[in-house]
Amino acid sequence: MIVEREKKMIKVSVIVPVYNSENYIEKTIKCLLKQTIKDIEFIFVNDGSSDNSLKILKKYELKYKNKIKVINQKNSGPGGARNAGIKMAQGEYIGFLDSDDTQDPMMYEKMYEKAVEKDFDMVVCDARVIYPNKKISIDSGINKDTFSKEEIKKHMIYSYAVIWNKIIKRKIVTNTLFSKNIWYEDIEFLFKLFPKISSIGVVNKPFCNYIQTNGSITYTYNNKLYDIIKVLDNIVDYYKKNDLYEEYLPELEYSYVRYIFGTFIKRMAKANDKNKYKEAVIFAIDRVRNNFPNYKNNIYLNKTGMKNIYLKYFNKFISKIIYIKEKNKMN
């Protein structure tokens, strides 16, 4: 009698998009291979690299067949690469990393332990942002385990909207894919996920190191910065099409204002052309007023705090102060 061997359960699948990353991808691979959790797989998606990235990935795939899988595809941006990884993933939970990020060796073990503790849909951890000249510790924006829809709604506006400090149940992720060839695709992805999330577990340890190079979005001016507008509009359209708009209106409204007057304006301030910045300010103000004309009455925006005062009263004069402040940071 032949007994079929039981298929090994994968606890966590980690998906890493790779594009022209030959200078740092080996460091990332070696760091991941130090993860203490045993039942884990690493899916690297070579997204049309023109350098030696694929060659490096194939070398490690051959050596670590039980842990490393490599997908090779035409360039479709980080979102398209992650979609390919999601389709291949076998893990109970899925995590996402960038090709230059590093982690604490116990990151996925501790996050998975937390996940199964109360069958959480999502688990988040704290992180460190590594800039060329400094390190900053950041918390996840969620300070306690969450089990109610109302609390999860609050996390939509207060949590750190990134994917590299999270693991999420694969059965939830599978039907929610990323937009291709667009920046800020992780914000859109997370906002599409939130209505499907019923519980969030928190590990208050800075396990993930998010590396900011001089080419990172945070440091770069590019017309692609306008992609955040597309992303926000995609989110609003998604909620309307799925009859979620009215239920989540306060959170959507606040987030729209926050990302346009906050993220978009501050990153546009890094433009070398001051006229481009002025155009962006006019565009941002018009966009917010057209989409959410009553945003100043938003319940979250009317809570105390300097950030909310800034968002509520943002105008052309305040934009001039922001421009000078952001330029000073760059010097």
What do these coordinates show?
- The N and C termini lie far apart (74 Å).
- Helix 7 packs parallel to helix 8 (227-241) and helix 8 runs antiparallel to helix 9 (249-268).
- This protein is of the alpha/beta class and 331 residues long.
- Strand 1 (12-18), helix 1 and strand 2 form a beta-alpha-beta unit.
- Strands 1, 2, 3, 4, 5, 6, 7, 8 and 9 form a nine-stranded mixed β-sheet that branches.
- 43% of the residues lie in helices and 17% in strands.
- It is built from twelve helices and nine strands.
- It folds into two domains: 12-211, Spore Coat Polysaccharide Biosynthesis Protein SpsA, Chain A (Alpha-Beta Complex); 221-330, no CATH class.
- It is globular.
Structure summarized in a few sentences:
By secondary structure, this protein is α/β, with parallel strands linked by helices. Helix content is 43%, strand content 17%. It has helices spanning 25-32, 53-63, 77-88, 107-117, 149-158, 170-173, 185-193, 227-241, 249-268, 274-291, 306-313, 316-330, and strands at 12-18, 40-47, 68-73, 93-96, 102-103, 122-130, 135-138, 166-169, 200-211.
Topology:
Blueprint: E1 12-18, H1 25-32, E2 40-47, H2 53-63, E3 68-73, H3 77-88, E4 93-96, E5 102-103, H4 107-117, E6 122-130, E7 135-138, H5 149-158, E8 166-169, H6 170-173, H7 185-193, E9 200-211, H8 227-241, H9 249-268, H10 274-291, H11 306-313, H12 316-330
Parallel strand pairs: 1-2, 1-4, 2-3, 6-9
Antiparallel strand pairs: 4-8, 5-9, 6-7, 6-8
Helix pairs in contact: 5-9, 7-8, 8-9, 9-10
